[in-house]
Amino acid sequence: MRILGRILLGGFALLLAVVAGSLALMLALLLDPRANAWLTQGALAGFDAAFSDLAAGLPPEGFLLLMVGLAKALFVLLFVPPALVGVTGEALGRRGLLWYGGGCGLLTAALPWLVRGAPRPGAAGLAAAEARLTLILFFVGGCAGLVYWLVAGRSAGNAPLEAGQGPR
């Protein structure tokens, strides 16, 4: 029965962590001037491509592919890190704030680096932009991890001993 309760609590905590990560991502992208400009340019390019296809009488396949790619990227950035940190924390019985907040933040910030693999040749000018994006993603993952910890992480692992029972 305890396992079912932990699964339900973990699922609820994961749902709240994804919402918190989404809100943190929106806040960071809106408050950071460079990220805001990048987001605006990307959105305008996507709408331009979709409306030019529609004006030419073509189905908006490019826009749909853009939306599917964006949904996949958001799933990987917002769902996977809190899920991995939560399942690992539950299996290892970790209850620490640093495990959930820091671990989820580090994993979220590391995902673009892990997916890309090797550094791009001749991309020395992009180092500042990549560092800024890494900090934004660490903030997003940290917020999601902290929310997960608040809901389910503090009670992860084995059931606490009742009063009067000692370790055996």
Structure description:
The protein is an all-alpha fold. The protein has a domain at 2-28 and 74-155. The chain has helices spanning 2-31, 33-55, 61-78, 80-92, 97-116, 127-151. Helix 1 runs antiparallel to helix 6 (127-151), helix 4 crosses helix 5 (97-116) and helix 5 (97-116) packs antiparallel against helix 6. The longest helix is centred in the first third of the chain and has 30 residues, at 2-31. The radius of gyration is 20 Å and the shape is globular. The two termini are 23 Å apart. The model has no long low-confidence stretch (mean pLDDT 80).
Mean pLDDT: 80
> How far apart are the termini?
23 Å
Count of DSSP strands: 0
Helices and strands, in order, run as: HHHHHH
Query: Segments where pLDDT lies below 50 for 5+ residues?
Result: none
Oligomer: single chain
Q: With helices defined by DSSP (H or I, 4 residues minimum), what is the helix count?
A: 6
Biggest β-sheet description: none
Radius of gyration: 20 Å
The residue fraction in helices comes out at: over 70%
What fraction of residues sit in β-strands? Answer: under 5%
SSE-based structural type: mainly alpha
Shape: globular
